[in-house]
Design brief:
Elements lengths: L10 H5 L6 E11 L3 E13 L4 H4 L10 E16 L2 E17 L3 H10 L14 E2 L9 H7 L1 E19 L7 E20 L4 E4 L13 E5 L8 E23 L2 E16 L6 E14 L3 E12 L8 E12 L11 E15 L12 E4 L3 E3 L4 E3 L2 E5 L8 E14 L4 E17 L15 E21 L2 E18 L34 E2 L2 E4 L10 H6 L6 E2 L11 E3 L7 E2 L5 E2 L8 E11 L2 E10 L3 E3 L6 E2 L4 E2 L17 H4 L26 E3 L2 E12 L2 H4 L6 E15 L22 E9 L1
Parallel strand pairs: 5-8, 26-28
Antiparallel strand pairs: 1-2, 2-3, 3-4, 4-6, 6-7, 7-10, 8-9, 10-11, 11-12, 12-13, 13-14, 14-15, 15-20, 16-19, 17-18, 20-21, 21-22, 22-23, 23-30, 24-29, 25-27, 30-31, 31-36, 32-35, 33-34, 36-37, 37-38
Helix pairs in contact: 3-4
Keywords: Cell outer membrane, Membrane, Receptor
InterPro entries: Beta-barrel_TonB_sf, TonB-dep_OMP_SusC/RagA
Subcellular location: Cell outer membrane
Length: 754
């Protein structure tokens, strides 16, 4: 009977298979003659998911496995109509057919696996799927078999027609260009639900025979339903571009210039009107003797989203360059390239997140009234948000200084760039609008910020006999600060945002924040002495030796919970003790390294990348989950795992709070879970890509009309190193609970050219 009472189910092994197949095929054909050229490319990709096929393949006639089938077709034809006119047509299309289980990935991963107890079985003794009494989703195998299926179709269409007229007979180097493009995107969903029989039985019930167990029905079988179809998204873009270009060289002088008009329209399915843009553009470059380069450009761009007088803005730019390696005193030396350059320009962004026509007020239904003797209610309308004519183009002014160099024929080469950016007209919520205004104040193009950074590339290429190799490193660094946001004087200086880097000043564990900065409580120590627990704020004031009073403790803080730093000195821990700390989810430093070699047909390359100066959010269930009532391998680092003795060094140096069947309100529930226990160093180094290849000798393959035949093996996302515990992915640290797990991919293939 023990086999029906005691279980040790590895839900990871139950839910996932070790590997999933992926197939990719590409075929391209090109050809032509002096008058016409063509190119056609077709590719097919099939990628399957990691769900265990023991469950996804149980249904007759359909599979619940995640699967992507992608078809891609591109074609180009280029025709010289005559010596004055060239016409080209580019056509492309992509179709994605995606199938997946009807149960969401969150339900399958979180409830079906992570929060499911290993003491739960897959099946009841009667052969039906088992579900615990507290949740009818805690059996991922059953959900894969019986939840149904969902199919999504995505279709993209791309088309571009270009006509180029050569006006060189009128003005040498002059051409006229006209381009028209149309592209569209559409998604369509078909969903079919089902269900499966599922039962609960009390495995601890005292029975002498398996037939004596009593079952409680948790789920009831339902056949696969007819499809419920939903058009999910649709849009198309129209892009027209026409103008003149000039390219002419005489003596040591080169002139390149272009002037054109562009019209762009984005049409989205739904109630919103199309987004329309119009721009007038000019660009010119002058180079003297391949040494001195001057370039300038200007654009007058307009968006229909803004009020009259703000729809158009002007964006100029200029750059200079000096190719010192072309000077007589440096030419033909070990310096193959030395180029100094500088540029300054203004760019604009119309998609600021302001919504459609923000200069107009918005009205909503509501605030109705009861009329007549029957007092029947009639819905009304009210002005919800006022319009703002100061909602306009966001501006970016950028200064860039750089140098490119190549010494001793690639023995040492690289580039160095430094930049400074001034952003203005950033949408902010004005803090100085009084509540007497009476409406929701609209966002205003008032904010300002500055960014600065640098990018360095340094490489070395050489050969030892027939052994060719290269080493190339890159480093990118950038930081920023807010210079204006209409901020009121904060209660505490450490909460001031102006003058500090851009955070989001809030936290979204699910990744919804674009910047991902965090206000957090700062951990000080674990509560270890009951005599030091303050019963009130006044008690903490009267007894400075005690811990600061935590407002959610009700004067009964449990040993093994966190004591945080009292930043404002009021002897009380609350949200006023939160401060911006650490970095954001976006790394400040991005180093990478590329290595490779070629030798007698063999070749290899390795790519390593790192994210540094980065803070990421983890969850309160990293050690022990109050949802699933079970621990991870990190539970041994939690306070109280070994003993309740607060003087035990394993408790003093614990990494996580006291184990509890509930997430305690001191340090593990919102808003006090926003603290330095769970917001951690997100730096990592990743072995991103490794590829090995072998190309057959051209003297051999030319006999069968081949120009290339290369066999290769490639691996992606192979390994990473970080401060995170084993099994936790620093790139996406919540993938262990909320998301589909990170996967490695391996490819074997052959490239053949005719």
């Amino acid at each position: 009977m023990d086999k029906y009472k005691y279980f040790n189910t590895n839900w990871n092994d139950v839910m996932y298979r070790d590997a999933a197949p992926q197939y990719k095929t590409n075929l391209s054909i090109s050809g032509g003659n002096a008058r016409a050229r063509y190119y056609v490319s077709f590719s097919y990709l099939r990628q399957e998911g990691m769900w265990n096929s023991e469950w996804t393949g149980q249904n007759d006639g359909y599979s619940t496995q995640h699967a992507l089938n992608r078809y891609n077709l591109r074609s180009n034809i280029d025709i010289d109509v005559n010596k004055f006119l060239n016409v080209s047509l580019d056509l492309g299309g992509r179709i994605d057919n995606i199938s997946q289980p009807a149960a969401t990935t969150w339900t399958l991963t979180t409830m079906g696996y992570v929060e499911n107890s290993p003491m739960n079985p897959i099946f009841c003794p009667n052969g039906e799927f088992f579900f615990p009494s507290d949740n009818d989703s805690k059996n991922g195998a059953a959900l894969l078999v019986g939840s149904g299926m969902e199919k999504n179709r995505r279709r993209n269409l791309y088309s571009t027609v270009t006509a180029t007229g050569d006006l060189g007979s009128l003005v040498p180097g002059l051409k006229a260009n006209v381009t028209f493009s149309f592209d569209s995107y559409e998604t369509f969903q078909a969903r079919q639900t089902a269900d499966i029989n599922g039962y609960y039985y009390n495995m601890n019930e005292a029975v002498s025979d398996v037939s004596e167990y009593k079952y409680t029905r948790m789920r009831t079988y339902a056949a696969l339903s007819n499809p419920t179809t939903t058009p999910r998204e649709y849009y198309y873009n129209l892009n027209m571009n026409g103008g003149l270009s000039y390219d002419y060289t005489f003596g040591k002088h080169l002139i390149n210039a272009r002037a054109f008009v562009r019209s762009y329209q984005n049409v989205v399915r739904g109630q919103e009107s199309s987004h329309r843009y119009l721009s007038y553009n000019a660009q010119a470059t002058y180079a003297y003797d391949n040494r001195y380069i001057f370039s300038g450009n200007i654009s007058r761009m307009g968006s229909d989203n803004y009020a009259d007088g703000e729809r158009f803005a002007t964006f100029p730019g200029a750059s200079i360059g000096w190719v010192a390696s072309e000077e007589s005193w440096l030419k033909n030396s070990f310096v193959d390239l030395l180029k100094l350059r500088a540029s300054y320009g203004r760019a604009g962004q119309a998609a600021t997140g302001a919504g459609r026509y923000p200069y107009q007020g918005t009205f909503q239904e509501g605030s109705g009234y009861n009329f007549g003797t029957s007092q029947s209610y009639t819905e009304g309308a009210y002005e919800a948000t006022a319009g703002n004519r100061n909602n306009k183009w966001e501006l970016s002014d950028m200064l860039n200084l750089g140098v490119d160099f190549d010494l001793w024929n690639k023995k040492i080469y690289g580039a160095i760039d430094v930049f400074k950016e001034w952003r203005s007209n950033i949408l902010v919520n004005r803090s100085t609008v009084p509540t007497l205004f009476g409406l929701n104040a609209p966002q205003d193009s008032y904010g300002k910020a500055e960014s600065k950074g640098m990018e360095i590339t340094l490489g070395h290429r050489n050969n030892i006999g027939k052994f060719n190799y290269y080493v190339e490193g890159m480093l990118s660094w950038n930081t920023n600060k807010i210079t204006e946001m209409d901020e009121l004087t904060p209660d505490y200086e450490y909460q001031r945002k102006t003058g500090s880097r851009i955070f989001d000043y809030g936290q979204d564990y699910l990744g919804g924040r674009t910047v991902g900065g965090f206000n957090m409580l700062i951990f000080d120590q674990w509560a270890s002495d009951p005599n030091l627990v303050a019963t009130s704020q006044q008690d903490a004031i009267d007894h400075p030796e005690k811990y600061p009073y935590h407002v959610s403790s009700n004067g009964k803080q449990t040993l093994g919970t966190a004591v945080f730093k009292d930043l404002n000195g009021d002897r009380q821990i609350d949200t006023n003790d939160k401060k911006p700390n650490g970095y954001t989810n976006i790394p400040e430093l991005l180093p990478s390294l590329r290595l490779g070699f070629e030798w007698h047909g063999f070749d290899a390359r390795v790519v390593l990348t790192a994210y540094l100066n980065r803070t990421v959010a983890t969850r309160e269930n990293m050690a022990y989950s109050a949802w699933g009532k079970m621990g991870t391998h990190e539970v041994t680092k939690a306070w109280g795992y070994y003993t309740d003795d607060p003087t035990d060094s394993r408790n003093i140096n614990a990494k996580y709070p006291r184990i509890s069947n509930t997430f305690n309100s001191i340090d593990s529930s919102y808003p006090y879970n926003e603290n330095s226990i769970w917001l951690v160093n997100g730096d990592f180094l990743s072995l991103r890509n490794v590829e090995f290849g072998y190309s057959l000798p051209k003297t051999l393959i030319s006999k069968i009309s081949l120009t290339q035949c290369r066999f290769y093996f490639s691996g992606y996302n192979l390994c990473s190193w970080s401060h995170m515990p084993k099994g936790f992915d620093a790139e996406n640290p919540q993938s262990y609970v909320w998301n589909y797990p990170k996967t490695k991919s391996f490819s074997f293939g052959v490239n053949i050219g005719f």
